[in-house]
Amino acid sequence: MAIVDSVARLAATLIGILHTRLELMSVEVEEELTRFSAYLLWSLVALFCAGVAVLLLILLLIAAFWDSYRMVVLLSLLAVFSGAAIGLGWWLRHNMLTKPRLLANTLAELRKDASALRGSSHTDESL
């Protein structure tokens, strides 16, 4: 009976560990989906800004032949949208290069679990 109880407790412990790790994995997947959605949204904003910058550049070339202060306004708008597109592009690239690996925390916890189980089996053998 003691062996059956020990096996049942071991199985319950392993199922508990697996359950905890799967919950952690689901949280990490949700975080990654949220991060991906944000990257997608900011990429679209950056592309929009770049598109507006191109349109303003075309208007600037057309307005270059007119006799007024339209040049200053168009240059200012061009600078703002170009700066926004470049800044957002740099920020997105930086965040994508420095983001954590998918399921990194889950894998780290599984490594700890495996190490702890190996360590506990070594200490049990020495008894």
Notes on the protein architecture:
It is a single chain. The chain is mainly alpha-helical and 127 residues long. It is 90% helix and 0% strand. The chain is built from three helices and no strands.
Name the average pLDDT. Answer: 83
Question: Low-confidence parts, pLDDT < 50 over ≥5 residues?
Answer: none
Specify the overall morphology: rod-shaped
What is the number of helices? 3
Distance between the termini: 22 Å
Order of helices and strands: HHH
Q: What oligomeric state best describes the polypeptide chains here?
A: single chain
Computed Rg = 29 Å
Sheet with most strands: none
Beta-strand percentage?
Answer: under 5%
Bin the helical content: over 70%
Number of strands: 0
Observed structural traits:
single chain; mainly alpha; 3 helices; 90% helix; 0% strand; rod-shaped
Topology:
Blueprint: H1 2-63, H2 70-98, H3 104-126
Helix pairs in contact: 1-2, 1-3
What's the short story on this structure?
The protein has 3 helices and no strands. It is mostly helical and 127 residues long.
